[in-house]
Amino acid sequence: MKLHEPVPGGPCWAELGTTDLEAAKRFYTRLFGWYPRTDPRQQAGGYTIARIGDAAVAALTPLYQPGQPVAWNVSFAVRDADAAVRQVTAAGGAALQGPTDVFDSGRFVVAADPAGAVFQLWQGRSFPGAGLFNAPGSLGWVELLTREPDRAADFYETVFGWSITPSQSYPQWGIDGADFGGMVTMDDKFPHEVPAHWLPYFAVADVNTVAVDTTDGGGSVLMEPTSVPDGPRIAVLRDPQGAMFGVYRAGDER
């Protein structure tokens, strides 16, 4: 990812909703070297921020809503959450939750694009988002998997003003020429029940080692470690509670 800090329209945070917070803390601490700390305030509902050194890199949370899936969610930074959610709905998306103030940290929205891919909007105040990108254990890429690529391209360009690098195999999202993610068209190889979704990729020192550590920790490998032609070495994994995420070798940024 060519972005190294939260910028308006860019990915700024990744957040896991899980059925077993303590198990998730153990799993990702072993996998990425995170130091998770749960907010002790009752109103925080178990919200846990994972750090590498002094830098916040991601969050782990219990499931807050009935029917909420176990999943990683990607947040995009916005200057004004209320204005952004109006843009989302005007472009054919939906607001699923919020806008909601989160203490003095910022203002938060859960939204979905026209094909149903869920994402989050974050208007940072005292907390702008992740303090580290592209380094081992931190967010380094985000990927939209959708069955409606043309509609998705129109939607995200309208809402966020993203640029789209044309490619039949893998279009890439960018802001002012700085690419931060890509888009995969879901074909018949994807089970029908798998919805459109955003997938975060975390940088790691060694993709093969992390894949082994995932299975040793009770998770599974969905896509074996692979070297993408003219691209990074990657793998797609699933944690023990069922959340999918990707990893790529640090230094192999697209």
TrEMBL record:
InterPro entries: Anthracycline_SecMetBiosynth (IPR052164), Glyas_Bleomycin-R_OHBP_Dase (IPR029068), Glyas_Fos-R_dOase_dom (IPR004360), VOC_core (IPR037523). Gene3D superfamilies: 2,3-Dihydroxybiphenyl 1,2-Dioxygenase, domain 1. It holds the Pfam family Glyoxalase. Residues 10-124, 138-250 form the VOC domain. This is VOC family protein. It comes from Streptomyces coelicoflavus. The lineage of its organism: Bacteria, Bacillati, Actinomycetota, Actinomycetes, Kitasatosporales.
